[in-house]
Amino acid sequence: MREEDRNMKHWALQLYDYHVWANERVFRHLSDLPEEVSRRELQSVFPSVFDTLVHMYRTDNTWLLAMTGRFEEIPAAGRRILEEAREMRLPDLEARFRDMAERYRNFLNTVDLEAVTAYPHPQYARSAPGMPRSCSMSSTTARTIAAT
Fold first, then answer.
1. Do 16 and 108 form a contact (C-beta atoms < 8 A)?
2. Helix/strand/coil percent split, the chain, to 5
3. Domain locations in the chain?
4. Nearest CA-CA partner of 81 in 58, 50, 102, 48
5. How far is residue 110's CA from residue 104's CA, in Å, rounded to a whole number?
6. In angstroms, rounded to a whole number, what is the distance separating the alpha carbons of residues 113 and 20?
7. Most confident of 88-92, 110-114, 116-120, 131-135
8. What is d(CA 27, CA 49) in angstroms, rounded to the nearest whole number?
9. What phi and psi values does residue 10 have, to the nearest 5 degrees?
10. DSSP string of 119-133?
């Protein structure tokens, strides 16, 4: 391996850092606005910006649970996040995002980022004929997708 390759941060970590940076920018922008702006109803896929952020948080949580093999926790965790979000304010959600970023960093520092891993869907992998039984991606495929 070339010296410069050893000194570079793995591309997956770079992409995750970008994800965290982009989320931080959104929260920074929203913090300059009245809080009700994040809850204002929109004509969009989600009812509000806040609901979009909750969806993003749930998705990040779902993938972290899947990648750590905790599939059975996913449904209850998703419901719990939605219930808790009803009472949350924007700074509370931002704190959850920061905590999630730390949990991801801890996880990413413990795994082989070049490994190919299958993540079988806990429900549909067993019951839907004709559906793929799992999702997997090699680092080469992910780099190709990221470059397009």
1. yes
2. 65, 5, 30
3. 8-113, 115-148
4. 58
5. 10
6. 18
7. 88-92
8. 11
9. -55, 140
10. EE-TTHHHH-TTS-S
Quick one: angle between helices 139-147 and 11-31, nearest 10?
Answer: 50
* CB of 56 closer than 8 Å to CB of 4: no
pLDDT at 125: 54
What confidence tens digit (pLDDT) does each residue in 2-13 have? Answer: 445 545 789 989
For 29-33, 59-63, 69-73, which range has the lowest pLDDT when averaged over its residues?
A: 69-73
Instruction: Give the per-residue pLDDT at 80.
Output: 98
Report the alpha-carbon distance of residue 102 to residue 64 in Å, rounded: 11
Residue type, 147: A
Mean per-residue pLDDT over the chain, rounded: 82
Query: Residue 101 has which token pair?
Result: 């970023």
